């Protein structure tokens, strides 16, 4: 029996790769829902290929453009409400791959509806990890990580006792500026920051990788996913991107998950769990590997990682404020309105000016998000 899939963020990097795996394994997967932002041309192609019963787009103008391209065979929803409606419909797995805080409400809607979720939208856990995990437990659904690091941790923990865990080690490629001193980062241009040496990702995630905020968000995500204290989550630079993360146990044994830097690996694991898809990723030839390097993070050059730990320390709505400030700063950098090192400066100022509130409702999260964006925009304009 095939597994029914709803994919939120179907025109992005994760979404298109998930659809590629579905197309290669039609006997295993049926695509029943798709959601995208404004790329209606690509979404129309996906509708023609997979014939989902319903799709969602960003706004009414995109909905009208899409209807003109696909006709009347597929229901078209729009806005956040439309994405939430799509995510809450009966399906076997919702792939949450929207980029940014916009993915929070649809992810919660999927969980509330009792749907299992494959999570690529790390911001859902960064902004509202406590709320998300409470609802996962209440609804009894699976939350499967798609991030390569968290997929690696999950795979390294399967079959082992949680109480035997000593620490989690997240690996980071170091991005395009690995080894650079802080002074050398002053004049970085967006094109340089987008040129990731090992992974192919969208622009926002590529910039997050270059600043190492991506790794900071992953620390927060790991804290919630695996119920591990921040002080037991560490980050090491591993430029080869072969060891995707490690788990160390109390007896000193480390278990790691290795593979080529290909997102089809963690995507396929989440889509097919608890089974695996044959041939999803090219095999790893260990005899052909050069040395595997591991080095410490230069926190002076890349302060965003420390800001993420600081947000966890502050607690409550602080991680939501951190994420909102980062999204605004990254957009401004891509638009050449600020410099590369202004990104952590703006995030740091917003975070220290934020008064954390208790994380007791989605409205509280959205309020913190709005306030932090407003503060960040003020700093950017200045």
What topology emerges from the helices and strands here?
Layout (H helix, E strand, L loop, with lengths): L2 E6 L4 H12 L4 E7 L4 H11 L3 E4 L2 H11 L4 E4 H10 L4 E4 L7 H9 L3 E4 L3 H17 L3 E3 L2 H10 L7 E8 L17 H5 L8 H9 L1 H14 L6 E5 L5 E7 L4 E5 L5 H9 L31 H11 L3 H17 L7 H12 L8 H20 L1
Parallel strand pairs: 1-2, 1-5, 2-3, 3-4, 5-6, 6-7, 8-9
Antiparallel strand pairs: 8-10, 10-11
From the structure above, extract its key features.
46% helix; 382 residues; alpha/beta
Task: Give a quick rundown of the structure.
The protein is an alpha/beta fold. It has helices at residues 13-24, 40-50, 60-70, 79-88, 104-112, 123-139, 148-157, 190-194, 203-211, 213-226, 264-272, 304-314, 318-334, 342-353, 362-381, and strands at 3-8, 29-35, 54-57, 75-78, 93-96, 116-119, 143-145, 165-172, 233-237, 243-249, 254-258.
N- and C-termini, Cα separation:
57 Å
Q: What is the CA-atom radius of gyration, in angstroms? A: 20 Å
What average pLDDT do the residues reach? Answer: 95
In total, the number of strands is: 11
- Count of helical regions: 15
Helix content: 40-55%
Percent of residues in beta strands: 5-15%
Order of helices and strands: EHEHEHEHEHEHEHEHHHEEEHHHHH
Low-confidence runs (pLDDT<50, min 5 residues)?
Answer: none
Shape: globular
> In what order do the strands lie side by side in the largest sheet?
4-3-2-1-5-6-7
- What would you call the structural class? alpha/beta
Largest sheet: 7 strands, parallel
């Amino acid at each position: 029996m095939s597994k029914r899939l709803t994919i939120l963020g179907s025109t992005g990097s994760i979404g298109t790769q998930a659809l590629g795996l579905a197309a290669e394994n039609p006997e295993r997967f049926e695509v029943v829902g798709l959601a995208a932002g404004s790329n209606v041309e690509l979404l129309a192609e996906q509708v023609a290929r997979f014939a989902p019963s319903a799709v969602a787009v960003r706004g009414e103008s995109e909905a009208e453009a899409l209807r003109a391209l696909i006709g009347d065979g597929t229901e078209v929803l729009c806005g956040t409400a439309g994405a939430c409606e799509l995510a809450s419909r009966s399906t076997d797995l919702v792939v949450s791959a929207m980029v940014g805080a916009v993915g929070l409400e649809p992810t919660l809607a999927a969980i509330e509806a009792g749907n299992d979720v494959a999570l690529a939208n790390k911001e859902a856990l960064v902004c509202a990890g406590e709320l998300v995990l409470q609802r996962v437990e209440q609804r009894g659904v699976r939350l499967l990580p798609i991030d390569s690091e968290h997929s690696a941790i999950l795979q390294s923990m399967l079959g082992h006792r949680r109480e035997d865990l000593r620490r989690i080690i997240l690996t980071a490629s170091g991005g395009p500026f690995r080894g650079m001193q802080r002074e050398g980062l002053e004049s970085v241009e967006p094109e340089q920051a987008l040129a990731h040496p090992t992974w192919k990702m969208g622009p926002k995630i590529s910039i997050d990788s270059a600043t190492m905020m991506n790794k900071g968000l992953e620390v927060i995500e790991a804290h919630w996913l695996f119920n591990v204290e921040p002080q037991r989550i560490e980050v090491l630079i591993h430029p080869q991107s072969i060891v995707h993360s490690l788990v160390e146990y109390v007896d000193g044994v480390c278990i790691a998950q290795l593979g080529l830097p290909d997102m089809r690996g963690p995507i396929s694991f989440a889509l097919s769990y608890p089974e695996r898809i044959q041939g999803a990723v090219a095999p790893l030839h260990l005899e052909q590997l050069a040395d595997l390097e591991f080095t410490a993070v230069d926190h002076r050059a890349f302060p965003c990682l420390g800001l993420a730990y600081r947000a966890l320390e502050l607690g409550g709505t602080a991680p939501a404020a951190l994420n909102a400030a980062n999204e605004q700063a990254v957009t401004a950098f891509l638009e050449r309105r600020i410099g590369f090192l202004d990104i952590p400066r703006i995030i740091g100022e917003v975070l220290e000016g934020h008064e954390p509130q208790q994380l007791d409702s989605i409205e509280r999260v959205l309020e913190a998000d709005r306030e932090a964006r407003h503060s960040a925009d003020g700093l950017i304009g200045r």
